[in-house]
Write a structure and sequence with these properties.
about 325 residues; alpha/beta; D-Maltodextrin-Binding Protein, domain 2; 2 domains; nine-stranded mixed β-sheet; about 45% helix
Length: about 325
């Protein structure tokens, strides 16, 4: 009996210490370098947003915040690394709608399911896709694009950052609605944009931040934007809806931690990232690239992620997309 009483006292002491320990770990966080894994290659939208946030976190917290690109398996590789990591707040994931909302349905048997293994931390940006073409084909607007597509039916290729990504699914829906006979060529990441510029692809739906600078530099021509309304980065660019194509969707990008991370650390990360995105200079920079920074609390972003997964699951099934 005395032994059981001693165990009870010891357990009570341990439980009493745990909340204080969690509080202390959050209060001292971060006290060493943080690494953010990006699930795609350098130069893409996920990478651009992650590096902007990492730089600002490093300035604010006076610790190195390192970005490491780990592309592969349609974004699943980076997701798996962070999903299996210790939930201490020092290994985070910058990821997008594809690996988080689409891949669980697309792959079905993921080693790490992002919907279960990751804690949503903060929304980094809501981003429309822009229909872009290489300058080499001489197409500069919607009318010219339609004429070119009809003249080259059966020989059109479009790229994406991987099977089942929004770039793929939007292109698929677009081809169906417009009646294009086009072939999908998936890439691991930003390589798709390079092949588009080189003329090996005839069109692509790419996230605004990854192509707006290329459009302004004259390396690509923009035809339309997939968002519900025109974007401030390119106010003269029409939406697909304006052109009579019933598509109004885009992509989003967010920061995640391994499930089980101290809620106080997650909250601290969220509040800091939100304050960074609300800085006028940062906000204007992201808007100029075509990314809309939207402030969400941890509960709001968590609900957003779960709802987005539920929305895309039936669309992925209906498309018949299968991972290679």
């Amino acid at each position: 009996m005395k032994f059981i009483q001693n165990i009870a006292v010891l357990l009570g002491c341990v439980l009493g210490v745990l909340p204080n320990a969690f509080s202390q770990s959050a209060a001292n966080y971060p006290d060493r370098p943080i690494k953010i894994i990006v699930s795609f290659t350098a130069g893409g939208t996920t990478d651009i947003l992650a590096r902007e946030v990492a730089n600002q976190l490093s300035i604010r917290w006076k610790v190195p915040v390192i970005v490491e690109n780990k592309p592969g398996a349609a974004g699943n590789m980076g997701t798996e690394v962070v999903g299996r990591a210790a939930p201490d707040g020092y290994l985070l994931l910058a990821n997008s709608i594809g690996p988080i909302s689409i891949n669980p349905t697309l792959f079905g048997n993921l080693a790490v399911n992002p919907q279960k293994a990751l804690q949503p931390v903060a929304l980094l940006g809501d981003v429309p896709n822009i229909l872009v073409v290489p300058t080499t084909i001489g197409v500069k607007n919607w009318k010219e694009f339609v004429a070119y597509a009809k003249a080259n039916s059966g020989s059109l290729n479009y790229g994406s950052t991987g099977i089942g990504t929004t770039a793929h699914l939007i292109s698929y829906l677009f081809s169906q609605k417009v009646g294009l006979n086009a072939s999908h060529i998936p890439y691991k990441g930003a390589e798709a944009t390079r092949d588009l510029i080189a003329g090996r692809l005839q069109f692509m739906f790419a996230t605004a931040p990854s192509v707006v600078p290329l459009i302004k530099a004259g390396q690509l021509n923009a035809i339309a934007v997939s968002s519900k309304k025109r974007i401030s980065a390119m106010p003269d660019l029409p939406t697909l809806n304006e052109l009579g194509v019933d598509i109004a969707t885009g992509a989003w990008f967010g920061l995640f931690a391994p499930i089980g991370t101290n809620p106080a650390i997650v909250k601290k990360l969220n509040e800091t990232v939100v304050s960074i995105l609300e800085e006028p200079v940062i906000r204007q920079k992201l808007l100029s690239l075509g990314a809309d920074p939207i402030a969400m609390s941890v509960p709001e972003f968590t609900k957003f992620v779960h709802n987005d997964y539920a929305m895309w699951a039936p669309i992925v099934k209906a498309s018949g997309a299968k991972p290679e």
